[in-house]
Specification:
homotrimer; alpha+beta; 27% strand
Chain lengths: 157, 157, 157
């Protein structure tokens, strides 16, 4: 199955792309790489949850937020590329988790992003990643995730 | 106008490049990309401000610090490339904001960097970016910003 | 001396590669770059230290942890490339330091990674870097370090 078919099978409808909070852009291409801006778990313009994981947000809800941020990333990718099938591989994600000072399961939270990428892209979705705790994120979001993808050389952006 | 002309118009004098705080270098080239080390808002060897945004540093001063870190990045770039006119585009910035635990306007702070890049490089200055809060930064700096630029293939570094 | 010879001279035995904490991979290649996942100071499956630098972990021990994370990165690199001698250069490291709220010497901690790279790769080990403080890291690790290396084009991964 192609990534686009996988997406349909999983019942995921990609939303409109989130509006940047400044004069930057959601995606930049350089050579065969695309860099995405940090994605938040926004849905219909609202954060899925607010607060720190380990305080007002459970690790499970944190993982759902990381998944939602990834769905926004896929929406940006499809908008730019026309189709997710033009993704060659996911290269790197950096996951920031707004964390209680004693919360140490950031990897479990960011696996919400990691697992969705694997579900959609299969082996090509296996990426390098980091998961880091921070004390606070924009709009009091529980997570923010950055992405680097490799795309087909024949895509013109 | 070229980036160098824009810089003149804006009345910005690029300073001497900041000294690395270790055996690393301010800029590394790989292919058509240059990666810059995390830049601080140092001016004449002194931080413009110290402390957390939302505590002792206002969001407006935080944005000025992000702008000052960007001016240092441009100084490093011009030193390495000879001229900012050899920049093809700004690819990515990662902005870390030392933040009070309830400060959630990191995007506004990092827009101090984002807006200057747009002022100088125009459309080529529109990049992917992230803005993240952290509890503390080197030397108690309010911001630290990383940059990736794409440069002309014919530049030899 | 080659990097592999340097390693021997320094008496460093590269360990088995650390197991990813999810369905991601320790290293991804794209073109001539390899991106490594965030590395922790694990040795034989145990963190060298736990806690924040400036609280229960001294800056010196923090630097040893950054060095240990780098040794794990080198283990991953050698496993993937067959030999460290196929590294062209170290491009970028991002160092996250779990920090007491008043600890501002993150550069000194991350120099534990920086200095080892220079010892092993010489001039090719001089990279761009950032050092950032955070309130908490996975498994309560004092440091997490990400790496980007450039490798020989003739390596097939």
């Amino acid at each position: 199955m192609t990534p686009e078919e996988k997406l349909k099978t999983l019942g995921i409808d990609l939303p409109d792309i989130p509006k940047p909070l400044g004069t930057y852009v959601p995606l930049v291409r350089t050579g065969s790489l695309v860099y995405l801006s940090g994605m938040l778990p926004l849905k219909d313009g609202q954060l899925l949850k607010t607060g720190r994981v380990g305080e007002s947000v459970s690790p499970e809800d944190g993982a759902l937020c990381a998944r939602a941020a990834t769905i926004n990333a896929l929406a940006v990718l499809r908008f730019a590329l026309g189709s997710l099938d033009r993704v060659v591989k996911c290269v790197k994600i950096s996951g920031f988790v707004s964390s209680a000072t004693d919360f140490t399961q950031q990897p479990m939270v960011i696996n919400g992003a990691v697992d969705l990428l694997f579900d959609i892209f299969g082996e090509a979705g296996r990426h390098a990643r980091s998961a880091v705790g921070v004390n606070i994120l924009p709009l009091n979001s529980p997570v923010e995730v950055e992405f680097i993808f490799e795309i087909s050389e024949d895509v013109s952006l």
